[in-house]
Design brief:
Strand content: 25-35%
Number of strands: 25
Helix content: 10-25%
Number of domains: 2
Largest sheet: 6 strands, antiparallel, barrel
Length: 534
């Protein structure tokens, strides 16, 4: 009997322990009454986008009752009429692409209207927005214009790389950027229903972004359309836009947005190249003649620079890539080599408001990843919420030291007009053999945990004109070493002066940077970024 009593006592103790243990687990697994309210608040306010396999999906996630939407990569309305396979195939998560935002949702309460998703490449600092149109369009002659802007009273350099070949960190940061995309190469209409569109933007790393309250800054992007009857990129006018042209500004307005108001604008902009097709499809011959109507020498230099950069991305980094100051190459394991670049251009546009209008459901704004976004934030919160961009440049870097030599000579020359023997001297402006501005580079700390970032090369550039010549027509040289000029003896006047001393208007440094992921199966990316010196 005593043994039975002991057994019952042990069983009761075990039962009590089990009950307490179950109660403790339940308390740990479920929020307390106070916590439950905050969880409900987060669920009813913050919206976590639906995640999906964007790489291999045959159909996009849509709710029951809505017609299936094919992926952007192949099928009806795909992007192949705008971009080559180097862009289409460049979408692998293993190559650094992350799903940042997504409005495709199989659990939506109704049909999706013009849904979109956003990919971000953490090794290259590139953001791509993919939009699918479900709205009917009747604007066969219009071009597509897209734009991105910062909505905030705070200053950030996040958009400083967009629309620029050379970045000047001493001026007000970029606040808005707009670009006009070319018509599809297959002759189809630029605008249409049941069709995919892609917009790419290169982002700069801004360490100060984390100090801005998340609800005081947003990224805003939009789509619109209107006719452009003439475009001139400095070489000749054409009625067809064959390449993406863009314009950045430190305000909410730029030359492309102003076209809507004035019908004709002139200003600075860029040719924004996404993919090798920009070069291949616009080359007429080896002399530099091109369908973009750029000056032949500029297009030939660009083509040479892009080809050299593609070679560098394959592991053959040359001594100096000429003709290219801003670009991102490589990083795609799917091949061919991915390419993105910017080229400064003097843009002249003429247009009308015929068929102009904004896409339904745009503009669209979202919280900026890298800020401390609260769990109960209103609307979508990013799936990828880390600091964006790869690098940036600190202001205050000193100009490159130069020195002027004494006069060499005298030398003699015969004046062709009167046969008089003239004397002249030679002088030189010397530049350093090498420069090191690596201490002014700012690297996104996120990359330290997943890649090796190496400065492969630093080159300096000089822009100048000769005294007595038109300052509008300036010479650009990369690593010149020295610039020489002829000089008459003091006090001697001649009817025809030879070229005189150079007037330096701008100097800067170009970095060639390799970002190599820790996984050896992922090819590295080569980033060319050029910064103007104060």
């Amino acid at each position: 009997m005593k043994e039975l009593t002991k057994l019952l006592s042990v069983l009761l103790s075990i039962s009590f322990m089990l009950i307490v243990s179950c109660q403790d687990n339940q308390i740990l697994d479920e929020p307390k009454e106070d916590d439950r309210a905050s969880v409900v608040s987060a669920q009813t306010r913050a919206v976590i986008p639906h995640d999906f396999d964007w790489e291999n999906a045959d159909w996009m996630p849509t709710p029951p009752g809505q017609s299936q939407i094919p992926s952007p990569w192949v099928g009806q309305g795909s992007l192949v009429s705008i971009y080559g396979l180097d862009v289409i195939n460049d979408r692998r998560a293993s190559d650094g692409w992350e799903l940042m935002y997504n409005s495709f949702d199989p659990n939506a309460s109704g049909p999706l209207a013009n849904p979109y998703f956003v990919l971000y490449n953490k090794y290259r600092g590139l953001m791509r927005i993919f939009l699918y149109t479900t709205t009917q369009f009747y604007a066969p002659s219009s071009y597509l214009q897209d734009g991105i802007s910062i909505i905030s009273n705070h200053s950030t350099s996040l958009l400083n790389f967009i629309g620029k070949e050379i970045v000047d960190v001493s001026v007000a940061p970029t606040k808005s950027y707009s670009q006009i995309q070319p018509k599809p190469s297959d002759g189809s209409y630029p605008l249409g229903s049941n069709k995919w569109y892609m917009m790419q933007y290169e982002l700069a790393y801004d360490p100060n972004l984390a100090t801005i309250p998340y609800n005081q800054i947003q990224l805003n992007w939009s789509l619109s359309s209107y006719d452009v009857t003439e475009v001139n990129l400095g070489g000749g006018a054409t009625g067809t836009i064959n390449g993406t042209i863009g314009s950045a500004s430190s305000t909410s307005s730029n030359i492309i947005s102003e076209l809507k108001n004035t019908g004709e604008v002139v200003g600075k902009g860029v040719l924004a190249g996404v993919g090798q097709a920009v070069i291949n499809n616009n080359t007429i011959d080896s002399t530099g003649r091109n369908h973009l109507k750029l000056p032949n020498n500029i297009f030939k230099a660009l083509s040479t620079g892009v080809n050299a950069a593609l070679s560098a991305a394959s592991g053959n980094i040359p001594g100096a890539v000429i003709g290219l100051l801003s670009g991102v190459f490589g990083g795609s394991s799917s091949g061919p080599t991915a390419a993105s670049f910017n080229l400064n251009a003097d843009i002249s546009l003429k247009g009308t408001l015929t068929n102009a209008g904004s896409f339904p459901s745009t503009p669209i704004s979202f919280w900026v990843p890298g800020t401390n976004i609260a769990s109960n934030a209103v609307g979508y919160i990013p799936l990828y919420n880390k600091s964006l961009g790869v690098l940036n440049f600190k202001p205050g870097a000193p100009r490159i030291d130069t020195s002027t030599s004494g006069r060499f000579g005298p030398y003699t020359v015969v004046d062709p007009w009167n046969g008089q023997v003239l004397q002249y001297y030679i002088r030189h402006l010397y530049f350093p053999q090498s420069v090191d501005y690596s201490s002014y580079l700012i690297l996104n700390p996120e990359l330290r945990y997943m890649s090796t970032v190496e400065i492969k090369q630093q080159d300096y550039y000089v822009k100048y004109y000769r005294r007595g010549e038109n300052p509008k027509y300036q010479t650009f040289e990369l690593n010149p070493g020295s610039i020489s000029w002829e000089e008459w003896p003091h006090g001697v006047e001649h009817g025809t002066n030879p070229p005189q001393e150079p007037i330096i208007t701008e100097m800067g440094v170009r970095f060639t940077i390799e970002v190599k992921p820790q996984d050896d199966n992922i090819p590295p990316s080569i980033i060319y970024k050029t910064f103007k010196l104060d």
